[in-house]
Design goal:
Layout lengths: L7 H15 L18 E4 L1 H9 L6 E4 L23 H5 L5 E5 L5 H9 L4 E4 L5 H15 L2 H20 L9 E7 L5 E4 L4 H8 L3 E2 L7 E4 L1 H7 L3 E6 L7 H5 L2 H4 L2 H5 L2 E5 H5 L5 H13 L6
Parallel strand pairs: 1-2, 1-3, 3-4, 5-7, 5-9, 9-10
Antiparallel strand pairs: 5-6, 6-8
Amino acid sequence: MRFVPNFRAALAPMLGVLLAVATQPARAGEGTTVFSDTSRIASIGGSITEIVYALGEEGRLVARDSTSNYPEAAAKLPDVGYMRALSPEGVLSVNPTGILALQGSGPKEAVDVLKKSSVPFIEVPDRYNHEGILEKIRVVGKALGVEAKAEKLAIETDGKLTAAEKQTAAIKDRKRVLFVLSTQGGKILAAGSDTAADGIIRLAGAVNAVEGFSGYKGMTDEAIVSARPDVILTMKGGGPPISENELFANAAIASTPAGTNRKMISMWGGYLLGFGPRTAEAIHDLAVAFYDNQAAD
């Protein structure tokens, strides 16, 4: 292929990646469940990195994404960028022998390039429930060739999750919780169904106050008032922090039971929404915050 000279500078950063893709007859990662070489793994997704450490296999990691900030030792690894804004050249620049990526990594165009490269790519399912966490552990363990370790961790995690869920099983008067992701521009961006926020709210024995849409969506004042949340849930570490004063200055929020009682709970994003080995502890902490002594034992 002959490039027009004045396009060369713009295309140079991607040229090596595109040439590598062009020589591949099929997707190297397509159908792959086990890496043939686990010596240099790039981990994309905070819960994936956390699982690798929990398995005691962190020595295999050569890089991680910016959401991988637990345990603290992970921060010493090269950072290939935010999992939803990856660049193929950035990931491939660390010369990985395998890419282990959480479902939802993106953008799609970048992931498609990575899947077509010569580096095996394994996508780990991300379901926001009890069984989804166990599946994630087992998929990561299989990919790294340590299935026995993964099964042991899955059994331990299963026990902890079951115990955490029993804390709130008998609660009848369940709190209505509105998860607010952002208040930028005075607009409330809230979590509907099929989100990590919805999943953790349910596991902690509460009810998502939002109905009728999936994903994250801006809410009108009327919708906020109709949702009648008892609690506003936010996360730390995922962007500009949401202050109580800012939140309850919103007239619609202020008119809800949560606003009347100024009930706001904020937890670190990776801990709250990670759906990994620490989720049982997050469920416990969130349930105690929702129900005080009812869920403390």
